[in-house]
Specification:
alpha+beta, about 80 residues
Length: about 80
């Protein structure tokens, strides 16, 4: 059975939201490599000109560790 995947999300608002989300994703990639996480799914999405998100997908067993270290704003079940 596949492990449940959780999408952790950071919200960025304001005129610099897109650039901030893009930059934050770079730090998420660095964290994946440093902590040797099982997945390497990240991204950033522009919702509108004043709102963007960055995200990281983790397996359920890594959720608490990553949540406590990186303090995402919210999370949701990830499905492809």
């Amino acid at each position: 059975m596949n492990a449940k995947k959780i999408k952790l999300i950071w919200d960025f608002r304001g005129p610099a939201a897109e650039k901030t989300a893009e930059h934050h994703e770079k730090h998420l990639i660095e964290y994946i490599l440093a902590e040797k996480l099982n997945l390497n799914i990240t991204g950033h999405t522009t919702i509108n000109d004043m709102y963007s998100i960055a995200f990281l997908v983790v397996e359920e067993q890594e959720l608490i560790q990553v949540r406590d270290a990186l303090k995402p704003h919210r999370g949701e079940i990830y499905s492809t």
